[in-house]
Write a structure and sequence with these properties.
Blueprint: H1 4-16, E1 21-26, E2 37-39, E3 53-58, H2 65-78, H3 82-87, E4 89-94, E5 97-98, H4 99-108, E6 111-114, H5 117-125, E7 141-146, H6 156-166, E8 173-176, H7 182-189, H8 198-213, H9 236-239, H10 245-251, E9 253-259, E10 267-268, H11 275-279, E11 284-287, H12 292-297, H13 318-333, H14 337-346, H15 348-359, H16 361-384, H17 398-405
Parallel strand pairs: 1-3, 3-4, 4-6, 7-8, 7-9, 9-11
Antiparallel strand pairs: 1-2, 5-10
């Protein structure tokens, strides 16, 4: 499998450049700020009259409303001639399914190239775990949860921490919140633009803010100060290595409470976070926006509705959804260790299946999806552009591209 660092370079060389399409990417790669969009330096066609179109790579981070509006304005400034827009191919490569994205595509007349980017990244980051037996019956905690970024659209994690603290559940888990501080909590709950509801702010104030304040210290002692390997972008591959301290704690925890990047938005978008419990052969509860558990299952993975109530995935209200998740965590924490071990043994086939599926057919699924969706872009270009600017699938052996990606 191609490494995550060279993935985009390979895709450009296999699919984009042969059709004289220029790549426009974010630099730094994790940004979604329109000012950070720039032309890929490897693009070999410097003259506009030699270019068939552009591919805008918005595949790493989810699209939000403000950046979408800014991109639309930037796009019209960059391509002011409507005829030029129609005569050349414009693709947005992305990793989400949402109405916001669809509306942006419709407004701009761009082609939609969806693929599961974070699935490819995970196959690289977690490649070593395929060779390790992660099954165990030695648990020291019922659950583990990593909560690195706690602000803005991820401030729902503060609500989770407050609920766990209010129900005295933190003693049963490895609860990671390395950036948590009294000042951070204060800024979020008193921010008029915060996505936190009034009731969520009240819970956070009573059961998180005051608890930290009572410590009379700048450092938070309620939770373990440890960076999640999936939230630390400095060296993610090393942080995900088998045998390091963070992985050991993950192995000693039975249930993984995965707090995903998106929570408030109505979109289907998952990152590498969800795949850590899968490669570690652990059951998981997914804290994300409505429908993302079903989205994961659409890629062939199995979940755990035999042992917990997974109706939280159908809940539209973010506060109710979080309450339902914490209810399930509390039920698990009230069980004896012998009951949990029986549960773990009962799950063995599903845990084994998920890990084997991740390293097996999942790769085929996301490669087929990526190439098939690119083929759809080529078909769409035949309907919307002049013949001389069309993406020609004849220029590329797509079957051969699939074989390369599956190596």
């Amino acid at each position: 499998m191609i490494s995550s660092g060279y993935f985009l370079k390979l895709i450009n060389e296999l699919l984009i450049y042969p059709n004289r399409i220029v790549s426009i990417e974010f630099d730094p790669h994790y940004s979604t700020k329109i000012r950070d969009l720039c032309r890929n330096s490897d693009s070999p066609w410097p003259k506009n009259n030699e270019i068939n179109g552009h591919c805008f790579w918005w595949h790493e981070e989810p699209i939000n409303n403000d950046d979408s509006n800014e991109f639309i304005n930037w796009y019209y400034q960059r391509f002011p001639n409507a005829a030029q827009n129609l005569n050349k191919v414009h693709i947005i490569a992305n990793s989400e399914k949402s109405q916001l994205k669809n509306s942006m595509l419709d407004t701009l007349g761009c082609n939609n190239w969806y693929f599961f980017y974070h699935g490819f990244v995970s196959l690289d980051w977690f490649r070593d775990f395929e060779y390790f037996n992660c099954t165990t019956t030695e648990f020291d905690k019922v659950f583990i949860t990593f909560n690195h970024i706690l602000t803005k659209k991820r401030n729902y994690r503060l609500h989770l921490l407050a609920e766990l603290n209010s129900r005295k559940l933190t003693q049963y888990g490895h609860v990671k919140a390395d950036l948590l501080s009294r000042n951070l909590v204060k800024q979020e709950i008193f921010n008029n633009n915060s996505l936190l509801s009034k009731s969520a702010r009240t819970i956070i104030y009573k059961h998180l803010y005051l608890s930290i304040e009572d410590k009379h210290t700048k450092n938070n002692n309620l939770f373990h100060a440890s960076v999640s390997p999936l939230d630390n972008s400095s060296n993610p591959i090393l942080n995900c290595a088998p045998g390091n301290k963070k992985t050991d704690q993950s192995l000693k925890s039975m249930w993984h409470i995965v707090t995903e990047t998106v929570y408030y938005e109505q979109k289907l978008h998952l990152t590498e976070k969800i795949f850590k419990p899968i490669v570690l052969e652990r059951p998981f509860i997914l804290l994300s926006t409505q429908g993302n558990l079903s989205y994961l299952k659409s890629y062939g993975f199995k979940t755990f509705d035999r042992w917990i109530d997974e109706s939280y995935d159908n809940e539209m209200d973010p506060d109710v959804r979080l309450q339902k998740v914490v209810d399930e965590i509390e039920k698990l924490c009230r069980k004896s260790m012998s009951e949990l071990l029986i549960m773990y043994q009962e799950m063995h086939e599903i845990l084994k299946f998920n890990k084997e599926h991740f390293y097996g057919n999942f790769k085929n699924i996301i490669v087929d999806e990526m190439i098939d969706n690119f083929r759809m872009c080529t078909e769409q270009s035949k309907l919307t552009t002049d013949k001389k600017f069309q993406i020609l699938s004849d220029n590329i052996n797509l079957s051969q591209v699939k074989k390369i990606l599956l190596k």
